[in-house]
Structure prediction request, 357 residues.
Amino acid sequence: MLVEKNVPLQALNTFRIVAKAHSLVRIKEVEDIARLLQDPQWGPGPKLVLGGGSNMVLTGDVKPLVLKMEIQGMRLVEETDKHVILEAGAGENWHDFVAWTLNQGYPGLENMAMIPGTAGASPVQNIGAYGVELQDRFDSLDAVDLQTGRLFSLNAAQCAFGYRDSVFKHSSQGASESAAAPLGLKDRAVIVRVRFALPKVWKPVLGYADIEKKMAEHACTQPHPQQLFDWICAIRKAKLPDPNVIGNVGSFFKNPTVTPEQCADIIARDPKLVHYRLDDGSIKLAAGWMIDSCGWKGKSVGQAGVYEKQALVLVNRGAGSDGNGATGGEVMTLAKAIQTSVYERFGILLEPEPVVV
Ligand code: EPU
Prediction:
């Protein structure tokens, strides 16, 4: 088992923050994890799982052993009456997997095209875009317990998916738990394979203003899957910075949910507040609009900035080559200043989406 020392992480996190891993091991097959756990030097210590590094802010060098997930493989597992079940190794690039499913003739993931990161990280924050969340297409996943080395599977209910949330974002508080409903798996388990159930009868998920604009432009009311995939890619390219050009982790804050009363209270002061009614009666507020309204678009703290075209996205304005760019500290200072001004104006505390390491 090769443990690399002092590994630069700038190319391994999409914010392109300069930091080093004191030690890093590449996990290429499931068995590598069991081998690692049996190793007397590396088995017992703390670990950090790294996928595409697209949802983390590094605030310094990483001391825990970094497990860089590189398990590959994409395959059709089975066909049921209503679904095809497709599987991706944790290390597969998410967008490449989405493109592969379409090339194989299995639509269903196209609205989530171009989300940066790996397939293995996708359930952790229940990724979503343009009306489809991972949980809508999820079948099950395999993970390895980082204490016992045991391989286990979880279905959707066991993953406890929520908006940008799952059992993998929460620590177990030591309370009793059952294998059927683990309380928290943060730092306790590593996802090694994810399976998706794509409906055999495909229906496009439309209804987003950006998609409707494309439909009008192309005079098309029934786009086919590849058409929708291409539109989503174009919409994202126009709105969101490409992490290969400008470091970022997508949306930096979650869109907060409030009661209708709270929403009415804010609207009384800010009539233009962008909001959406959810099925459960609560109201989702557009955090990007609130940040934008506070005048943050284009502002910076050091080399960390607010993206000019989407205020919910923080970016690294550094050149992107080794030794340059924003520090995690600058990103967090900017994030805190944004939280403060949004709180002072709207009474809402924005919650960051990425994991701060
Ligand atoms: N808005 C502004 N100013 C801004 C940004 C947004 O006024 O600077 C307004 C927009 O005009 C729009 C509303 O806010 O009326 C919502 O903006 P947008 O449609 O761009 O979506 P979002 O709520 O900012 C969410 C997801 C994205 C996902 C898009 C599309 C979260 C935290 N973000 O963004 O996901 O791609 O919807 O479905 O839920 C991500 O999670 O990393 C991500 C990119």
User: Anything to note?
Assistant: The mean pLDDT is 94.
